[in-house]
Design a protein that fits this description.
Keywords: Cytoplasm, Protein biosynthesis, Pyridoxal phosphate, Selenium, Transferase. Its cofactor is pyridoxal 5'-phosphate. The chain is of the alpha/beta class. 39% of the residues lie in helices and 17% in strands. The chain has 3 domains: 49 residues, no CATH class; 118 residues, Aspartate Aminotransferase, domain 1, CATH 3.90.1150.180; 235 residues, Aspartate Aminotransferase, domain 2. The chain has a 7-stranded mixed sheet, sandwiched between helices. The protein has a 4-stranded antiparallel sheet with strand order 13-14-17-16, covered by helices on one side. A two-stranded parallel sheet has the order 1-15. Bound molecules: pyridoxal-5'-phosphate (PLP). The site of pyridoxal-5'-phosphate has 12 residues, from α7 and β10.
Length: 429
C-alpha cells in the first residue's frame, strides 16, 4: 500500500491541494487507500483513484439541474441567478468598494448602487433598504415599528411559509403582540379599524403565497386599510416589483405602494429572480425608522448579495422571468429534440405535456403549461445522484423543461445518457 505522503507527492494532487486545500485532497487519498485495502483496486491505482475521487469544489454544496417543473424550489436554492448576476458576484468577491468612495477616498454609502437600482425599478418607493431575507424584513419592521406593542393582522393571514416557518411566531418572537382580527375566511376593513388604539404599532397584511381559500371569503384591500390611523405594512412575499399579467392575483410592490401602503416587504429570490434578500420599500420616513434601528446592522446584506441584486435589477431578464414567460411550443420543441437525441442512443423516452408551477414562492393554484421528457421511474435515483432532479408522476420520471434554462439542455442530455448506463447495469445485475 503506497504511503499517504508518497501519494500526495503526485503533481496532480499537489495542484489540487492548492485549489481545494490539503484536507480535502488527503481525504480523497485515504478513501482510495481503503478501496485498495479491500481489494477493489490495485495498490498501484491509488493515486489515479484519489484524483478521480476529488471533489469538484471546496464546498459540499453542489449545482443541480431543476427539472421538477417548480420554478422556485426552496430546497434547490430558489431563484437561479442570471449570468449577469453571477458575473457580478464573482467580480466583487475579492475586495470591493462596498462602503468606500473611490472618487474621494472617503467612506461611501453602503450598497448605494443596489438601492438606486431598486428605486429605479420601483419608482413608487420613496426609499428602500435591503436585509438578509423577507423574514428579516418582517423582524425589523416588527421591532422598529411595533416595539412590543400590537401588530394588527387578519386571522386569514396567519400563515406558515414552509418547514415550520410561521409568520405569527416570527413576529411574536420580536416581543410584539399579535392582535388578530376577523375570521379565517372573512376579514373586513371594519375589523381592523375596530382593533386600532394606543397599543397599535402597525397593521400588517400578509400575502398567502402558498395556498388559496375559495368560497365565502372576504379580505380588506390595501386601499381600504391605508386610510386607517396606523402605519400599514404589506408583506407581498414574492418580490414582484410591477404587475405581472401572467400572475393576475400576485401582488406587486408598485401596486401596493400606489394603493397607500407605507412599507412593502418581499423576498429577493422568489419572482424577482435574484439572490436571497429581504427588500423593504416605501415611504421615506418609515424606511428611515428601520434603517436607524440598531437591529438593522445585524440584518444587513453583504457585498455578494448587493452585487447580485443590482445586476439582477439592471441586467437582462433573470432565469425565473424567462421560465415564467417561456411559451409552451418552444418547450415542446426542446423536449422533442432531447427525445430524438436520446432515442438515437436506444433509450425508451417520450416527449409529454406537463404542468409546471411557480412553487412556494408565490402564485398558488396557477398552472403553467409545460413540456417534459418522460423516462421510466428507475431513472429517478441515478439522475438524482448525478444532480438532475425531476418529478415522479404515475411511476414515470418527468424532466420538466420549464425551469431548466435552455443552456442546460446539453448537460441534461449527457446526464441522462450517463444514467442510462447505471440503469442498464442495475437491470443486468
Ligand atoms: C416566502 C415568504 C416569506 C419569507 O421570505 P424569506 O425571504 O424566505 O425569508 C415571508 N412572507 C411571505 C408572504 C412569503 O411568501
Amino acid at each position: 500500500m503506497p504511503r499517504t505522503d508518497a501519494v500526495l507527492a503526485d503533481p496532480r494532487l499537489g495542484t489540487a491541494a492548492e485549489r481545494l486545500g490539503r484536507a480535502l485532497v488527503k481525504a480523497a487519498v485515504v478513501r482510495a487507500q481503503e478501496r485498495a485495502r479491500s481489494g477493489e483496486i490495485p495498490p498501484a491505482a491509488v493515486a489515479d483513484a484519489a484524483v478521480a475521487g476529488l471533489p469538484e469544489h471546496a464546498t459540499t454544496l453542489r449545482p443541480v439541474v431543476n427539472a421538477t417543473g417548480v420554478l422556485l424550489h426552496t430546497n434547490l436554492g430558489r431563484a437561479p441567478l442570471s449570468p449577469a448576476a453571477r458575473e457580478a458576484v464573482a467580480a466583487v468577491s475579492g475586495c470591493a468598494d462596498v462602503e468606500y468612495d473611490l472618487a474621494t477616498g472617503r467612506r461611501g454609502a453602503r450598497g448605494r448602487g443596489a438601492l438606486e437600482a431598486l428605486r429605479a425599478a420601483c419608482p413608487a418607493a420613496e426609499d428602500a433598504i435591503v436585509v438578509n431575507n423577507n423574514a428579516a424584513a418582517l423582524v425589523l419592521a416588527a421591532t422598529a415599528l411595533a416595539g412590543g406593542r400590537e401588530i394588527v393582522l387578519s386571522r386569514g393571514e396567519m400563515v406558515e411559509i414552509g418547514d415550520g416557518f410561521r409568520i405569527p411566531e416570527l413576529l411574536a418572537a420580536t416581543g410584539a403582540r399579535l392582535r388578530e382580527v376577523g375570521t379565517t375566511n372573512r376579514t373586513t376593513a371594519a375589523d381592523y379599524a375596530a382593533a386600532l388604539g394606543p397599543e397599535t404599532g402597525f397593521v400588517l397584511k400578509v400575502h398567502p403565497s402558498n395556498f388559496r381559500i375559495e368560497g365565502f371569503t372576504a379580505e380588506a384591500a390595501v386601499a381600504e386599510l391605508a386610510p386607517l390611523d396606523a402605519p400599514l405594512v404589506v408583506d407581498i412575499g414574492s418580490g414582484l416589483l410591477a404587475h405581472e399579467p401572467l400572475l393576475p392575483d400576485e401582488p406587486d410592490a408598485a401596486g401596493v405602494l400606489a394603493a397607500g401602503a407605507d412599507l412593502v416587504t418581499a423576498s429577493g429570490d422568489k419572482l424577482l429572480g435574484g439572490p436571497q434578500a429581504g427588500l423593504i420599500l416605501g415611504r421615506a420616513e418609515a424606511v428611515r425608522r428601520l434603517r436607524r434601528h440598531p437591529l438593522y446592522r445585524a440584518l444587513r446584506v453583504d457585498k455578494l448579495t448587493l452585487a447580485a441584486l443590482e445586476a439582477t435589477l439592471r441586467g437582462p431578464e433573470p432565469p425565473v422571468a424567462r421560465a415564467l414567460h417561456a411559451d409552451v411550443a418552444g418547450l415542446r420543441e426542446r423536449a422533442e429534440r432531447l427525445v430524438k437525441e436520446l432515442s438515437a442512443h436506444g433509450l425508451a423516452v417520450d416527449a409529454v405535456d406537463s404542468e409546471a408551477t411557480v412553487g412556494g414562492g408565490g402564485a398558488p393554484g396557477v398552472v403553467l403549461p409545460s413540456a417534459a421528457v418522460a423516462l421510466p421511474g428507475g431513472y429517478e435515483r441515478p439522475l438524482r445522484e448525478r444532480r438532475v432532479v425531476g418529478r415522479l408522476e404515475h411511476g414515470r420520471l418527468l424532466l420538466d423543461l420549464r425551469a431548466v434554462p435552455p443552456a442546460e439542455d446539453a448537460l441534461l442530455e449527457r446526464t441522462v445518457l450517463a444514467a442510462a448506463g447505471a440503469v442498464a447495469a442495475r437491470e443486468e445485475g
